[in-house]
Amino acid sequence: MGMPQKRTTGNFSDQIQSLVKEIRTETPDCVAAGVVDMATGMLLAYETVDSHPTEVLDLLAGATLDLFQGRTVLMIEDVFKERRGVASDQHYFQEVLVNSKHVTHLFLRMMSQQDVVVVVVCGKSVNVGMLFAQARRVIAQYAA
């Protein structure tokens, strides 16, 4: 496997759709994928094997926002940055793994665009190491 190619064709919306499609096909046991804009709290794109009510998808976007940029999380980030003398705008929490009863959710910030979070939902039996490796590999291709 060579160096990841950057996907720069098309506009931002096309790239997001393409990213979601590739995450869905390339990550193991994936049942849903989406991209959340942390600046607006909106779900920019998603693909799922099941049909979900719009309310659930809206809640996913809100939960992602709370998970990464909720008031307490931002306070923790500020304390860590202050204690470590970090003056960066980069967020401290970059990836979060959440296991529920039936599925595993992986939330990953795009390094190049800190306001964009990719959400991957897989079956509970997923190999978590492979999930991280494949999701990171796909996201790296869209890092431009």
Helix content: 40-55%
Order of helices and strands: HEEHHEEEH
Largest sheet: 5 strands, antiparallel
So what's the CATH class?
Answer: Alpha Beta
Question: Strand arrangement, largest sheet?
Answer: 2-1-5-4-3
Count of individual domains? 1
CATH architecture: 2-Layer Sandwich
Radius of gyration: 15 Å
Low-pLDDT residue spans: 1-8
What does it look like?
This protein is α+β, with helices and mostly antiparallel strands. It has a single domain (12-140), classed as 2-Layer Sandwich (Beta-Lactamase), CATH 3.30.450.30. It has 4 helices and 5 strands. The chain has helices at 12-26, 54-69, 71-84, 128-140; strands spanning 30-37, 42-48, 95-99, 103-110, 113-123. Strands 2-1-5-4-3 form a 5-stranded antiparallel β-sheet, sandwiched between helices. β4 and β5 (113-123) form a beta hairpin. α2 (54-69) runs parallel beside α3. It is globular.
List keywords for this structure.
about 140 residues, alpha+beta, Beta-Lactamase, five-stranded antiparallel β-sheet, 4 helices, 5 strands, disordered N terminus
Short structural description:
With 144 residues, the chain is of the alpha+beta class. It contains 4 helices and 5 strands.
Per-chain topology:
Blueprint: H1 12-26, E1 30-37, E2 42-48, H2 54-69, H3 71-84, E3 95-99, E4 103-110, E5 113-123, H4 128-140
Antiparallel strand pairs: 1-2, 1-5, 3-4, 4-5
Helix pairs in contact: 1-4, 2-3
